[in-house]
Amino acid sequence: MAPQTGPSEKGTGPGPAFPQLFTWEEIRIRNGRGQGREQWLVVDRKVYDVSQFSKRHPGGSRVISHYAGQDATDAFVAFHNDKSLVKKYLKSLLIGELAPDQPSFESNKKKSLLEDFRELRCTIEKMGLLRPNYFFFFLIFLHLLVLDAASWLVIWYFGISLVPFLAGMVFFTTAQIQMGWFQHDLGHCSVFRKPRWNHLLQIVVINMLKGLPASWWNHLHNQHHAKPNCFRKDPDLNMHPLLFSLGKPLSKELGKQKKKFMPYNYQHKYFILLAPLALIPFFQLSTIYFAIKRKKWLDLILVVTFNIRVCLMYVPLMGFKTFMIYYWLSRYFESSWFIWVSQMNHIPMDIDYDKNEDWVSTQLHATCNVNQSVFNDWFTGHLNFQIEHHLFPTMPRHNYCKVAPLVKSLCDKHGIEYKSKTLLTAFVDILHSLKDSGEHWLEAYLHG
Predict the structure, then answer these.
(1) How far is CA 231 from its chain centroid?
(2) Where are the transmembrane segments (predicted)?
(3) How far apart are CA 334 and CA 247, in angstroms?
């Protein structure tokens, strides 16, 4: 069917109750890049114009724009637990629906897989696996507060000789990373049933206890979940190509373009040191820039308050210079912890431009798991269940292990690889993947 530039003629029938009807081709060209910059998307066969709304979207403007011109049904369901709240926004955006002769699924998406996945989601909802265990999250919150208090008490009681200095740094680093995992839960609205309470506690944890803006984190992280490992849509790939060359297709493309910002053929060697070092100034500078540009003044004030608080707590005990060493070394170790855990599930997987695959394939091709153990669960904030987390981002983390066998059965039925590995193997695979990508870049750079 040839592309059309306006609503289909069959949608111009009499009466307001007669909806306008559209074809997939008409929707596909409203991807935000054509004339007029229109952005349409489909949810349950209904067609919505989000061109203006994307700027006001509570989850961030870009995350909804990434689905412009596509079917967003499964992403919509995955991100929104409170459907009644979201429907208030949808009513004013509705412009029509798919014509009766149009399939419910885009031609490049696996119908049987999506049907089985939607049935699986209904099953887990009936099983109550989307409901949080408040006592579990209370213990998580309590343990990170204890760690944070311990980092100060060790210095206060024992002084700043080598052993208490290092012990305090271990407590501080561990408290900060565990706060990061907990605010991640809150950002996904998986701790409380109501989004409002998740957002409020997230502000307390990430703004006041970690010193980062909640709005900045959600803006980036929602995009990552919407289109994981999709270049120019997943912000986690922004290190390509300035610092690293990621994935075979992108590395070959970079090499053929004769671009060389770094010696990528050695990136598996400098990743260990450079990645955590680069993340620290990126977080510090980008958060300030984001808050000022988007006028998130409350976020900015709370971040400043965090920095004042930690200075008042530690500087009187150890002096400013010693505190700077204590603080930035802790941040470096935290950054290393975060980088290895967050990237072990993604860098070794497929990295490319958005291919508009179905929701399940998009997530499975970009994620893998790390075997379960009490330590792995705690060390990674349950992100060792990355597959389940990406398929059901609002699911409370304590239920990942319960849904994992069901997800694996779905993958087995449809011939999709369900990858799970040891923690050490996952770490080593990051370096292997970087080495492979660097070699693909070098080959294309020299001979492409």
Answers:
(1) 13
(2) 128-147, 153-172, 270-292, 312-329
(3) 26
What does the buried/exposed string (b/e) look like for 131-158 if buried means 16 or more CB atoms within 10 Å of the residue's CB? ebeeeebeebbeebeebbebbbebbeee
Q: How far apart are CA 340 and CA 345, in angstroms?
A: 9
Asked whether the beta carbons of 126 and 136 are under 8 A apart, the reply is no
According to DSSP H, which parts of 1-133 are helical? 24-28, 61-65, 73-79, 83-90, 111-126
Contacts of 370-377 with CB under 8 Å at 24 or more apart are: 370/344, 370/345, 370/420, 370/421, 370/422, 370/423, 370/426, 371/420, 371/421, 371/422, 371/423, 372/401, 372/404, 376/423
Largest CA distance in the chain: 83
AA letter at 278: A
Q: What angle (nearest 5°) sits at the alpha carbon of residue 21, between those of residues 64 and 89?
A: 35
Least Cα distance to 59 among 297, 284, 335, 394 occurs for 394
Summarize pLDDT for 268-320 with one digit per residue, the tens. 999 999 999 999 999 889 999 999 999 999 999 999 999 999 999 999 999 99
Measure the CA–CA gap between 399 and 352, rounded to whole angstroms: 31
**What pLDDT band is residue 9 in, cutting at 50, 70 and 90?**
very low
Residues 382, 389 contacting (CB under 8 angstroms): yes
CA dihedral 129, 132, 134, 138 (to 10 degrees): 110
Q: Which two tokens stand for residue 279?
A: 């993340």
Angle at 369 between CA 107 and CA 170, to 5 degrees: 140
How far apart (Å, rounded) are the C-alpha atoms in residues 392 and 144? 25
d(CA 311, CA 269): 35
Containing 96, the helix (H) or strand (E) segment is: strand 94-98
Residue whose tokens read 């394939």: 361
Whole-model pTM over 0.90: yes
Residue 238 in contact with residue 220, Cβ under 8 Å?
no
